[in-house]
Design a protein that fits this description.
Protein name: 2-dehydro-3-deoxy-6-phosphogalactonate aldolase
Pfam family, one: Aldolase
Oligomer: single chain
Number of strands: 9
InterPro entries: Aldlse_KDPG_KHG (IPR000887), Aldolase_TIM (IPR013785), KDPG/KHG_AS_2 (IPR031338)
Distance between the termini: 33 Å
EC number: 4.1.2.21
Number of domains: 1
Family: Belongs to the KHG/KDPG aldolase family.
CATH architecture: Alpha-Beta Barrel
Largest sheet: 9 strands, parallel
CATH class: Alpha Beta
Structural class: alpha/beta
CATH topology: TIM Barrel
Length: 213
């Protein structure tokens, strides 16, 4: 079995999903999120000029930041992400061609899965982590049922309708990565508001999992 890059050891298993982010606000929002303690940032490709925003954030943040794209659907998208300097690839589905191209670039991959069939397919294709999506539909119980049959070392993430209020419940079933979307960022929010929400999420993570070293 081949693999893409392993999911890096982050201080906290939190991914900021900045859907709708504009290039002119990308650096300020990215810095606010990173400085609050969230080291992984995803700009979905259905945002305005997403590769411009990704490139700007990559340049502005330290090399330890894990910056990339969400809603990656095609091999061409993967090429664009690589050119922008992004290392994190998140998708709502599992696609063999997308995974193969990501592997070529050594990216960290987090494809979306909803069923055991999709989960095992993603593992076979070398996913760095699984993105159970939409997690709010599956719930902790649904993820727990599938987690029981997955390889023990599988890194499991919950995305979709997830907020800082859900960390404890999902932690109990083995979820260690959370993608935070509208609970963290919505178009039109001020940088200060995003920073406040990011700090709230970080405080909740530290309460549930222990403070980052």
């Amino acid at each position: 079995m081949t693999e893409t890059a392993p999911f890096p050891k982050l201080g906290r298993g939190l991914v900021a999903i900045l859907r709708g982010l504009r290039p002119d606000e990308a650096v300020a929002v990215g810095q606010a999120v990173f400085e609050a303690g969230i080291e992984a940032i995803e700009v979905p490709l259905n945002s305005p000029e997403p590769f411009v925003s990704i490139a700007s954030i990559v340049k502005a943040l330290p090399g330890t930041a894990l910056v990339g794209a969400g809603t990656v659907l095609t091999s061409g998208d993967v090429d664009g992400l690589h050119k922008a300097g992004g290392r994190l690839l998140v998708s709502p589905n599992i696609d063999a061609k997308v995974m193969a191209r990501a592997m070529k670039y050594g990216m960290v991959t987090m494809p979306g899965v909803f069923t055991p069939t999709e989960a095992f397919q993603a593992i076979r294709l070398g996913a760095s982590a699984l993105k159970f999506f939409p997690a709010s539909v599956l719930g902790a119980a649904g993820i727990a049922a599938m987690r029981a049959v997955l390889p023990a070392r599988t890194l499991v993430g919950a995305v979709g309708g997830v907020s800082d209020k859900d960390f404890v419940g999902y932690k109990a079933v083995g979820v260690s990565v959370f993608g935070l979307g509208s609970s963290l960022f919505k178009p039109g929010m001020s940088v200060d508001e995003v920073a406040t929400r990011a700090r709230t999420a970080v405080t909740a993570w530290d309460a549930a999992f222990g403070a980052a070293p």
